[in-house]
Automatic annotation (TrEMBL):
Domain HTH tetR-type: 7-67
Gene3D superfamilies: Tetracycline Repressor, domain 2
Organism: Oceanobacillus oncorhynchi
This protein's encoding gene: betI_3
The keyword Oxidoreductase is annotated on this UniProt entry: no
Domain of life, source organism: Bacteria
Name of the protein this chain belongs to: HTH-type transcriptional regulator BetI
Keywords on record: DNA-binding, Repressor
Gene Ontology MF, one: DNA binding
PROSITE patterns for the chain: HTH_TETR_2
Keyword Repressor attached: yes
Amino acid sequence: MVKSKKENRKEEILEAGLEVFAKKGYYNATTAHVAEKAAISQPYVFRFYKTKEELFIAALDRAFERILQTFKNVEASPEQLVEKMIEAYEELSELYPNEIALQVIGISVTEKSIQRTAKKGLSDIRSYTLERFKSAGIKDAEREASTFLARGMLCNISYFLDLPELIDEKTK
C-alpha cells in the first residue's frame, strides 16, 4: 500500500523529531528545530503533532517499537537466542543510533506522560524478552531477562555518554 503525501510528511517529521531530540535532548529541542530538520515550517509540524511533548512521545514510541520488532525478528536456537538478540540490538544501534539516545533521554524527562511512555516501552520489551526466554527454555529466565535488559541499558548509557569503558575492559 502506498502512503499518501500527508502520511509521508508525518513520517518525515517524526524521523526529524527522533534526530533532533536525540541530539539536543527533550528540554533543549524545539519544534522549530524539528521543522528546520524536516525542511518545513514550524506551523506545519503542529498540523501533525499538537505539542512538542506529543511529538516526543511519538518518537519514543517509535524507538521502542523498532527495538521490540527487532527482537521479534530474531530467529535462533534456544542455545543461541540471547547472543542473537544481542547481535540484533547491536545492528539496530548502528542503523538507528537515535533510538539509543532517545531511550536514555526518555527515562530522564519528568513529564508524567513521557514517563508513562518510557515505562510502557521498557515494560513491553521486558515482557516480550521474558516470554521469549521462557519459551526457549532458558534456565532462570526471569533473572536472565533482567540481566539482558540491564546490560542493554548500560550499553545505552555507555553509548550516550561516549564512555565505552563502562562496558568494554579493553578501552581502559
